[in-house]
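Changelog-adjacent note: as of this version, every example in the card shows the full chain rather than a window. The one below runs 386 residues end to end.
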Amino acid sequence: MIVRRPVPSTGVFRPVRPDDTRTSPEPPLADVTALGPTGDASAPTPYWPGREVAVGDTTLHVRETPGPAGETAVYVHGLGGSSNNWTELAGALSARCRGLAVDLPGFGRTPPPASGDYRPAAHAATLTAYLEDLRRRGSGPVHLLGNSLGGAVSLLAAAQRPDLVRTLTLVSPAMPDFRPLPSRLGGRRAALALLPLLGAGARAEQDARTPRERLARTMALCHADPRRVGDRAFAMAAEEAEERAGLAWAPEALHHSFLGLLGTWLTPRSGSPRSLWTAAARVTVPTLVVWGELDRLVGVYRAAQTAAALPAGRLLRLPDVGHVAQIERPQTVARAVLGLLDAAADGSWPAAEPAVRTITADRARAWTHRLPLGVVRPGAYGTVPV
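Full-length structure tokens:
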């Protein structure tokens, strides 16, 4: 996959649009002038302790990565994930922003919602209430980052309350994907387990597996190559999986959050506030979309459509990366996010324009290859494989 990043230039900044693509020889990505400090990639990032934060009738568990007081990043995990999914990226960005990674209701160490409502809109309402609390305390608007289900939740929050969000980063957001491929969910039995009535037997089979066995299957689905997961990261994830296995409400939270997401997918596009496509068209803040080309869960074919639906959206496609780019390539994603933050701060991120509502296959292919990267800096653009 060819992606775009800046070539040192004294020219005036001109964002590349589908009809204006530039190419030029370039050095490897690592040789480019640093976009900003992203921390020491060789040093392990500490798993910062969490704390409980009262948000309405919910108590959110939030993990904080210390950073400068000026800017705050809020991280939202995906289905079955937790705040730990952002540890490495939050560490890489800690020289620029304080990081706050939330456990959504029913996940990580946050208890289930009193309402029993796990729909993305309900999660978005909780997230919005948390962002409002941050702003009252002088920590907003924030840089909002979401992965998978957390991407959908963040998208809804940014559409409803743009005043609370400075920039938005979506890593493989859970946009509607109806490909009938059971392998996306771990096989036919795993897909069957998601059905309310017919899946009871399959769910019992899953429950019989050890937490580590379930974790290994999840990593095989989410990572392009699970063999690249380090021992330390796997040990931390295994510890968390074993802790979660002791929570009676954990399976229900996972199951009903999936069904809530599916309900959102089934919502028609035509103006419904529950539609993710409708929400995307209403997001006016600078937005970076990051997608792994080997994403098994939400196909990369949705990447260009998602970026095109966002009025101020730009796309970064990463080869040899799966569904969790922030875990698989934290330093690469950090550089892209820093480019977004810098461009949003100095006004060089292209302004919002009307979203493209209908995208033909040919147009989608054009957007895939010609959208500018999230790493937006003054100067001309070139192309380089990464």
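Structural remarks: The chain has a mean pLDDT of 77.
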